[in-house]
Design a protein that fits this description.
By secondary structure, the chain is mostly helical. The protein has 11 helices and no strands. It has helices at about 5-15, 25-35, 40-55, 60, 65-75, 80-95, 105-110, 115-125, 135-145, 155-165, 170-180. Helix 1 packs across helix 11. The longest helix is centred in the middle third of the chain and has 19 residues, at about 80-95. The two termini are about 20 Å apart.
Length: about 210
Amino acid sequence: MDTNEILSELERLYPDAKPALRYDSPYELLVAVILSAQCTDERVNKVTEVLFKAYNTPEKMIALRPEELEKYIFSCGFYRNKAAHILSASHDILEKFGGEVPSSFEELRTLAGVGQKTANVVYAVAFGGDAIAVDTHVFRVSRRLGLASANTPEKVEEELKKVIPREQWSKAHHWLIWHGRKVCRSQRPDCDGCALKQMCPRRFLS
């Protein structure tokens, strides 16, 4: 398995890969990523299209009571926890960072309800930082391709950072996501139609 060969092929397949979430500011991205946990980006985009018309800044968001926010985001699942995280993070942004989403990974991780994956996405996408966010697609595809073998997202992230050049971390994150959505799906992966099948050690396994 040649990591550079795999990365080159992924780049060829998905040269314009970018986040599917729609957002117009770092704050909107942060909220959308929180909502995306165990939810499709398509569903999140439908919810935020309505939510962000009235509540697209931390100042506006904290005007909502938890139960009011829950009604907006109900269809994203885990709506009580997500509403609590969004409101807590909004308060932190206002109280600790002058109303602006912090631009460093370390500061993002201090926000209430913001875990490793969310911080990595916002740091990389909103602020151009070098990061690999390991969601379900990245976790699955990187393990199938032999780029990683660990059993937790945190350890897979560590493994990927060792084999992928730093300047490609953020791009590789999107390549792996798109390959997971289009070809290397969780159920019934299209191994026969995969351009990477000759490089994949698990091409005959699901």
